[in-house]
Amino acid sequence: MTISDLTATEALRRIRGGELSIEDYARQVIARAEKLAKLNVFITFDPEQFLEDARRADKAGGNRALCGLPIALKDNIDTKGYPTSGGTAALKGHRPAANAPAVQKLLDQGAIIAGKLNLHELAMGITSNNGVFGAVHNPYNPDMIPGGSSGGSAAAVAAGIVPVALGTDTGGSARIPGALCGVVGFRPTMDRYGNQGAVPISHTRDTIGTFAHTVEDVMLVDEAITAEKSLDALPDLHGVRLGVPRGYFYENLEPDVATAAEKTLDLLRAKGAVLVEADIPDVGPLDEAVSFPVVLYEFLPDLEKYLCKQGCEITVEELVAEIGSPDVKGLSLSLLGEGAMPEEAYRAAIEVHRPALQKAYADYFKAHDVAAVIFPTTPLTARPIGQDETVELNGEQVPTFGTFIRNTDPGSNAGLPGISLPVGLSSAGLPIGMELDGPDGSDRKLLQLAAAIQDVLEPMPAPKL
């Protein structure tokens, strides 16, 4: 078994059993990272610091839950030992004074940082085509996007460089790249991990999320951050009720995505799951009324507060002037000028539409007695790098951003937990994901359910690297 085959759980078992030293593991991670440098997953990778941390962990030993586990972090998550650039030029040398709280909890449990990962600039996009640090490449086809904004995080796990990576998720950035790179991507309930210690987009919607090959590994990280223990056993799928909202979530799918979705539903039905075909009322219009008004109103003020709190001697205007990605720069400049979101629209989104969206989900879960809803994570598979404005879907040019976030965005705006599971490859060999969204605060139950579903799915073929 090579480094690329190791899950976090298996690696920890070998470290505890004395079969694998942490330093040897780190050396294998370094070799793998250097071999696959063409994927451009890292912004900061310091082999000497990584090895020093590994040797220190070997000497310390102990029985901490994550002892010696290498975890790479999206480069908008604060770390005092590494720069945190947010993927933008103006913050290249930014060194936070403290680790993000979620990161500190992982380090306290023995994890070691393997480096900082590339992303869509300022996390404001879904292609991870970064105009400052270069595009991240999809391990299944380097000509394709890995998704975003946490593209480096998903690609690093999919390529077998690290077993676990952290990203962030505002409207789908932990689930979209998970789906497009063939790994598990988890967004927790809003505030479960906290949104402190990361370069912000929206304090209402931002959260740290997790990437891994298995749900078991995601649960390992979740437990280390929250101290919430797992249930004793995975649920029996027989009798589990799952909502299937055909309206909105299953509309205008790429044919291979539609086929994979139906195959997954048929498998779950054969295992005894009860599939409840029912739509979430007005989910599309409610999501639209919340999504952009919240993000576009909060983005620059939240970023300004972050810069001030961090003691960065730079203004928002100066940061925007140095943005290298045309899509992010154009949007940011418009928000500084006449394109700024009106406060009236923001207040309506926060006080009226978001509560209505949350109620629609809560009423749906209660009325239909379902543990989760299940749907394709994205309506389409990965598209070529460079198609940042529009992509082709079923013979039409459609907006890249809006199309990829269509299914992940509503649950994000409602603050719900969601997890994307890899369910197979398209005819072109590109990964396809299915998402489960659960009720508010149901994270551990959702993870247990996702683990039970992953157990009956066919193993995801590894990329040919």
Concise synopsis of the structure shown:
The chain has 16 helices and 15 strands. The protein is α/β, with parallel strands linked by helices and 465 residues long.
How would you explain this protein's 3D organization?
With 465 residues, the protein is of the alpha/beta class. The chain folds into two domains: 3-280 and 352-456, Amidase signature (AS) enzymes, CATH 3.90.1300.10; 285-344, no CATH class. Helices cover 40% and strands 15% of the residues. The chain has helices at 8-16, 22-35, 47-60, 101-108, 151-158, 176-181, 215-226, 246-249, 255-270, 283-310, 316-321, 326-336, 343-368, 400-405, 409-414, 443-456; strands spanning 42-44, 70-74, 112-117, 129-130, 134-135, 164-169, 184-187, 207-212, 241-244, 274-277, 372-376, 390-393, 396-399, 418-425, 431-437. Strands 1-3-2-6-8-7-14-15-11-9-10 form an eleven-stranded mixed beta sheet, with helices on both faces. A two-stranded antiparallel sheet has the order 4-5. The protein has a two-stranded antiparallel sheet with strand order 12-13. α4 links the parallel β2 and β3 (112-117). α2 packs antiparallel against α3, α7 packs antiparallel against α16 (443-456) and α10 (283-310) packs across α13. The two termini are 16 Å apart. The mean pLDDT is 97.
